[in-house]
Amino acid sequence: MLSSEVSQLQHFSMAMYNTRTRSVSFLSDIFLMVGSSMVAFLTIWALWSFLTPNVKQTTPAFSAQLYPSVSCANYVSGPDLRHDPADQSFYDDPTLNYAIDSPPIKNWDEKRMEWLKQHPTLAAGAKSRILMVTGRHDIEIFYNNVLLQPKMFSFWAKTPTIKAAMLAHPEAEWIWWVDSDAAITDMDFKLPLERYKNHNFVLHGWLKLIYETKSWTSINAGVFLIRNCQWSMDFMDVWASMGPQSPQYDKWGETLSNLFKDKIFRESDDQSGLVYLLLKEKEKWGDKIYVEDEYYFQGYWVEILGTFENITDKYKQIEKDSPLLRRRHAERVSEAYATVWEEYLKGAGYGRGSWRRPFITHFTGCQPCSGNHNEMYSAQTCVDAMQKALLFADNQVLRNYGFVHLDLLDPSAVNPLPFDYPA
Length: 423
Description:
- The protein is α/β, with parallel strands linked by helices and 423 residues long.
- The protein has 2 domains: 2-53 and 86-292, no CATH class; 302-362 and 377-416, no CATH class.
- The protein has helices at 2-21, 26-31, 36-42, 60-66, 108-118, 120-123, 158-168, 207-211, 230-240, 249-259, 270-280, 301-304, 308-320, 323-326, 334-344, 379-398; strands at 130-134, 174-178, 182-184, 201-205, 219-227, 289-292, 299-300, 360-362, 403-404, 415-416.
- Helix 7 links the parallel strand 1 (130-134) and strand 2.
- It is globular and about 60 Å long.
- Its main location: Golgi.
- It holds the Pfam family Glyco_transf_34.
- It is a single-pass type II membrane protein.
- It comes from Dorcoceras hygrometricum.
- Keywords: Glycosyltransferase, Golgi apparatus, Membrane, Signal-anchor, Transferase, Transmembrane, Transmembrane helix.
């Protein structure tokens, strides 16, 4: 409903004001997340989302026939990460430049496809492979603590980072940017990539607020998917041209401030620039951008925080009624149980008002690294909220190890779970 969208819009605008008007260190705000609780949460993920091709299981009797000359010690299923043929590829082009302000990349789709042909074990499953790019660390994804374009500070730093990631990972179909103040809080949720098959860019927002209200907070540019293709290379160049490294930076600030009446600072920013392209160049860019509002592709923490207890109780009640969901199992086969969960969650809904776990909880305005939180919240409110969200997510992982945090504000205490919990 538009009323709820406007309510969130007002909160977002105020929450983001401090974030985007203070001069802060990119090294702090974008890439480094401080605190042991953050590090503990990051170990939750092995989520390169490096979705390797499914390997059909066989019984031991057939295994020997299928692989008669391969010892268990030497056989490795999935991508062969030790194989890089001597054949020439785009990497051998001396003019290749990873920088965002270098000459545009051309024929990227063809170059990437040729590279995949040279690496067949990586080609399998490539269409659903995602690389997450984030400021978080201690995870097997892409961590970087430097500005790849020194003039592109703060929120503008994402564009050169993503371009470099696209070139460094031709095996990935999608690049997934996640701000350092966002946390995945549903470990079972799978991105509905089939929904985005005709699009190259996915982000959270509200169409009415984009095209009718024309608000700079009608979207959130802190979490998005971008397809690894030529369209995206071209789009990133255009988007980045509004940034502080551009001689047109001040002019863009004026243009965006004049267009968006609710924009409360004069500088050109990535989010306003993205809304501008949706409004002014819809046929060229907008038709390939999917504005997601059907689930918490990223959700505002203030509206999510109070739902964790109710969601936990709902899930626990379902487990009480389902011996299968209570069954202990190896962590590696958790995806099979996630499929079973979906049958029970059909009536849960998605997003605001749902009792389904929120996919991503975004702590917009809390500034956990710099400490320059929005004055709407106290520092302790932000700390407690992040702690609660991280332990909510951590419990989903600890369950496979036989433990649980009973208190979502106490990361140091865990309790062992009895057999057949919570029967």
